[in-house]
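Running this now, will post back.
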Amino acid sequence: MIRKLLIANRGEIACRIMRTARAIGVATVAVYSDADAKALHVRSADEAVHIGPSPAAESYLVGAKIIAAAKQTGADAVHPGYGFLSENADFAQAVLEAGLIWVGPKPASIRAMGLKDAAKQLMRAAGVPVTPGYDGADQSVERLTKEAEAIGYPVLIKAVAGGGGKGMRKVDAPADFAAALESCRREAKASFGNDEVLLEKWITSPRHIEVQVFGDAHGNVVHLFERDCSLQRRHQKVIEEAPAPGMDEATREAICAAAVRAAKAVDYEGAGTIEFIADASEGLRADRIFFMEMNTRLQVEHPVTEEITGVDLVEWQLRVASGEPLPLAQEELSINGHAIEARLYAEDPAKGFLPSPGRIDDLYLDDRARIETGVEEGDTVSPFYDPMIAKIVAHGSNRPEAIESLMQALNNSFVAPLHTNQGFLYECLDQPAFRGADLDTGLIERAGEALIPAAHPSAAVIDAAARDFRRDHLDWGGSFLNDIRHSLFGFRLNRPATESVRLHFAGEALHGSSVGHQGARGIPTTMTPEGDIFVTDRGQTYHFTVRGPDGTGQASAADGAIIAPMPGKVIAVDVSEGQSVTAGQRLMVLEAMKMEHALTAPFDGVVEGLSVSAGGQVQVEAVLVKVVPAEKVA
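Update: finished.
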């Protein structure tokens, strides 16, 4: 068995690999760039080695630095994770030549599947169904134009070395072909250093179905069933699930058998994924599912396969790389329930999904779901890398149960102050077409703006924040329940029918009722010791504060009454009866539970009814003083 493993990656996948390595007694080594010096994967490893500046091209993509780090620390194996150098055959070869174990497929297998045109030809020879199209060597505009006409529009132009949605263009009419081809080639050249393309028939109701395969050095290859990754935005996966909804046993057997043939055709070892495109215009049928490509690595979405099979794919990778046979035979693998995964990103859906890097000041991820993350509260989402915050994975006995569990997890999580796609994910899951498994890769595009959450909080959301503020300040000692989600407001006799609480949201002062709006009762809220209130409605988190622009707090009810938020001792009184004050000015300081709480003026006005002095004890909800608007003073 491998003794010490270097993970040539970062973020959540590095943390994921370390968790399994630790469980089976394998020591771990992290590598990191300048930007990641304090990252979670660095803190989680047994050892860590600095490999260069923040840009990936100067650190994580420099194979020689990674191999040197492995040698320096005495690691005997390298796990590439996904992305970066994971599908780089030259790097895999260099690792082997350095006398290290490569946790992945043979370099020859990576090369065989590295170019889409050559892979399609290989698969066709192996009896794997491929999408109708053209993947020939003649790359002239004239030949490609002629082949597109023979295939029939619409057609898809794809870079042969592409991936991640880059170098792809759908063309609907002959008049658009030349411009689309030029654009595709230019993008492919810039992204992959190769401008060659292939053509495929555009599938009108496409579903993205992929099969997890695994091989060992003893000639064994198995599949671990399929995943559906049809919910995509601009060819990027958003939601993944397993098994594929609507997949009957006969079709499953056919597609999974084809995937095993594909893996055997390249003498495959380790974890890999065979990706298929399905024409779902008449449901999933074996004669309408075609090979697209093979990913010769562990996939981002591998947790959903683990959830339905009970298999730890990373452990399998380490054992197979150590020379062991596959832990289970095909007949020992089965599907248990349904799993679904959402990718939580630091990005702003309201602004075209622009990345939203920065420091995570507040973070809560509902751990009733499976959470795969590479960050903790106080960490930074770097602008240099993929802005993923976490993968949130839910498992249920069936698909509806898994969907509901994932929606609940999204609605019970928050990230601040970064923008995230959390509310967008919730809306995707709640789409009738998605719930009804009426899937294809164009679903998100068709739904459009309906999936973008409202930027401004509703009245019910504002009231939920007000209720949380009042409730937490009535808790003995002001004990804010940071990681506990509230859904009910405690009933008390003799409480006014409505109480107004002044809150701040995105620089705007808002007033919420702490008693009104029945809809507010079921909206999850959390308040932190610093006075930040997070309200999550349909997955979208709204960040409120009771502090004004100067950073001070206020505890006012209707009519300017300043109410004791908790039992405590008055340690300072800064104003006198009849004194004029301005909004945010400190009135007094209350001490409780060894913490000081400044009570400030909610608006400009005059002090009236001052009822306390320094050193006095007060009870919760006691009216300590009132601030009367200046215009109301006779």
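The radius of gyration is 29 Å. More later if anyone needs it.
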